[in-house]
Design a protein that fits this description.
Elements: H1 2-11, E1 18-20, H2 21-31, E2 42-44, H3 47-56
Parallel strand pairs: 1-2
């Protein structure tokens, strides 16, 4: 998965990555180590807040 994300980051610079800081902290605590992120990843305090901000700005959320 990390290779795919690095490829997307390199080939499509207009795409940005955002990580929920709350979820990252929970996973790191459970796993016992820091979760590495690809360069340029933005950490936001709560992912749901970022989703709401984007939707209010006209973006759509599509769940696979």
């Amino acid at each position: 998965m990390r290779k795919v994300l690095k490829y997307i980051n390199r080939e499509f610079p207009e795409i940005s990555f955002t990580v929920c800081g709350n979820t990252k902290s929970i996973i790191e605590h459970r796993e016992g180590h820091v979760i590495p992120l690809i360069d340029g990843t933005e950490i936001v305090p709560f992912g749901i807040v970022r989703l709401v901000q984007l939707q209010e700005a006209g973006w759509s959320y599509i769940r696979p």
